[in-house]
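F.,

This is the one I mentioned.
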């Protein structure tokens, strides 16, 4: 069965097929994906989704790889969302040394939204990949998103030092509206969340 790897930037979705052959990788062996020249090449393409000419493994080896984790948190029929730097998002962050992904996800939700009473309801996370520039270099971040439930007994406290000005439980019927001006990765993540029937119901 063919597997697709999706890598998101702020405006594009790069699509990698698991059926890419070694000779395809050889054709782009000298290509440097972690440069502003290649970033501009991708972002000058007219389509939002771009089929890549190599394997995900070949693409990944050019980057500093950042492991991260986040929480897909519900209370009743509401999703925990944060408003960070002018865009609606979900709580997440980089893994600390020695942490397991689930530990990171729980810690980041509490750091960014307040001391919530959280329970992980599914041990199998959704994984996303994010390609972005920071201080003149490019990073490739893998985020593992864990499904959680929260008791609504604690006030939400947005972590302002991280650019978060709001944290709120948003009704499932209103999530798509909040994401209208968000990034392609967030639309993809919300689509995947809606396929999790026991979480949405």
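My design for it:
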């Amino acid at each position: 069965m063919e597997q697709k790897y999706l890598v998101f930037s702020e405006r594009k979705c790069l699509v990698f097929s698991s059926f890419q052959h070694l000779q395809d990788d050889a054709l782009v062996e000298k290509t440097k994906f972690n440069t502003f020249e290649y970033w501009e090449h991708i972002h000058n393409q007219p389509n939002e989704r771009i089929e890549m000419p190599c394997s995900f493994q070949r693409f990944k080896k050019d980057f500093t790889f950042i492991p991260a984790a986040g929480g897909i948190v519900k209370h009743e029929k509401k999703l925990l969302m944060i408003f960070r730097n002018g865009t609606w998002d979900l709580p997440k962050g980089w893994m600390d040394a020695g942490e397991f992904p689930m530990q990171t996800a729980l810690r980041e939700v509490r750091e960014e939204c307040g001391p919530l009473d959280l329970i992980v309801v599914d041990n199998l996370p959704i994984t996303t990949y994010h390609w972005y520039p920071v201080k003149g270099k490019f990073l490739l971040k893998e985020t593992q998103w864990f499904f959680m439930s929260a008791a609504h007994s604690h006030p939400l406290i947005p972590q302002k030092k991280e650019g978060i000005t709001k944290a709120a439980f948003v009704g499932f019927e209103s999530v798509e509206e909040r994401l209208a001006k968000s990034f392609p990765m967030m639309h993809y993540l919300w689509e995947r969340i809606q396929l999790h029937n026991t979480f949405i119901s």
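The CA atoms of residues 36 and 182 lie 23 Å apart.

Talk soon.
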